[in-house]
Amino acid sequence: MFRRTRSNAVYHKIASLSPEHCLFYFLSIFKLIINANQELN
Fold first, then answer.
1. What CA–CA distances, in Å, run from 28 to 1, 2, 4, 34, 37?
2. Which domain of life is it from (predicted)?
3. How far apart are CA 30 and CA 7, in angstroms?
4. Which of 2, 16, 25, 28 is 20 to 30 A from 36, alpha carbon to alpha carbon?
């Protein structure tokens, strides 16, 4: 039986990226969180 969750697929997709792409990905999410916090304040 073949079972693969969506989060598992996303994890493998991120793991296959280069470190630079991962850094850019997390930085963009960090910016979005900061922008959301500033809008709440």
1. 37, 33, 27, 10, 14
2. Bacteria
3. 20
4. 16
- How far apart are alpha carbons 36 and 29 in whole angstroms? 11
Exposure on the CB side of residue 35, measured as CA atoms within 13 A? 6
**pTM surpassing 0.85?**
no
pLDDT digits (tens, 9 = 90+) for 14-37: 677 777 777 888 899 999 999 999
> In the structure, what pLDDT confidence band is assigned to residue 6 with cuts at 50, 70 and 90?
confident
